[in-house]
Amino acid sequence: MWGIMIRVKVLLHALRATVSCALLLATCKTVLAAEAMGTASATVLQPVTVAKIADLDFGKIVSGPSASTVSLSPAGLFQCGTGITCLDSHSAARFSVSGVPGHLVNIQSDSQIMLSATGGQKMQVALETSAKTLKLNSGSNNFIDVGGTLSVGAFQAEGVYTGLFTITVNYF
Question: Are residues 146 and 93 in contact, defined by beta-carbon separation less than 8 angstroms?
């Protein structure tokens, strides 16, 4: 009998706790629930900008009876291929990059472009940038230089050949 009475008392206490929990649902959830806090954050950076300082210029070229190339590295090293003559000055393109100092930027460029003359003649240029990434510093000497290899056809038609290329710079 003693064991039955204890069981009845335990069942009554359990029933009372269940009824109390049902009546005070918010209190029961608080007692039974676990919580944790998280933090949300965002860092806003000034936009990265890129500005052209100098254009890519292969100079004046006299073509010959065979196709050849003119190479100009991003560092300005110049090589005139065999069978053609290269005259006057030449220069690699230069771009200035600004943004948040200490941050890395990714540099992308067209790999090849076509130069066209007013008569429709064309020459192809394979482009090369001085770097694929750049860590920005606080000074104003964040530069990207662009050179390339110009393919000159045999007896390439006379004319001023021009073409556009794009440099894209993004934060990592």
Answer: yes
Alpha carbons 72 and 144: distance in angstroms, whole number: 15
**What pLDDT digit, counting tens, does each position of 84-112 carry?**
999 989 999 999 999 999 999 999 999 99
The tokens describing 135, both together, are: 């860590």
Task: Enumerate long-range contacts of 1-10, CB under 8 Å, 24 or more apart.
Answer: none
Query: If 0-12 CB within 10 Å is exposed, 13-18 middle and 19+ buried, where does residue 134 land?
Result: buried
Residue carrying structure tokens 């100092």: 101
What angle is formed at CA 26 by the lines to CA 22 and CA 32, rounded to 5 degrees? 85
Give the span between the Cα atoms of 27 and 16, in whole angstroms: 15
Rounded Cα–Cα distance for residues 146 and 133 (Å): 13
